[in-house]
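Appendix B. Raw example, untouched.
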Amino acid sequence: MPPLLRIDDVLLCHGTPHSDVDYLLDDIVGTDLQAADAVAVASRLAHPLARGAGLVLCGHSHTPRAIRLADGRLACNPGSVGLPAFATDRPVWHQATTGTADARYALLERRDGRWQAQLRAIAYRDADSAARAAALGRPDWAHALRHGRMP
């Protein structure tokens, strides 16, 4: 998959249009992620492929969020199916947590020319995934999969 993909008026990126490892909808505050404001998100979307996109879908933080920008664009991170929390030292040590083991997704629909998102959560078979993570030497991920937060 390319790191950046535009399909009609939908832009898909893992992090931001400029970076796979930067967050679009989140800021690192201390050791946690917090929702970025609309001004910060809009500045991170200053990219030629983002112009005219009515919907920007991102990931990277695994944290479900949706924000409507002043120009009408919708930026959405549907969350994660299979890793509801993690810790990393890039660019500085921090963690992302959803607080539940649920799988996250978004229902997206265009109504009257504007994209809408409904963020959803559904029970996830976390025991199977947690056992696999533990068997692979990742007890931290096993805990995250069971509880939606890091140990």
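End of appendix B.
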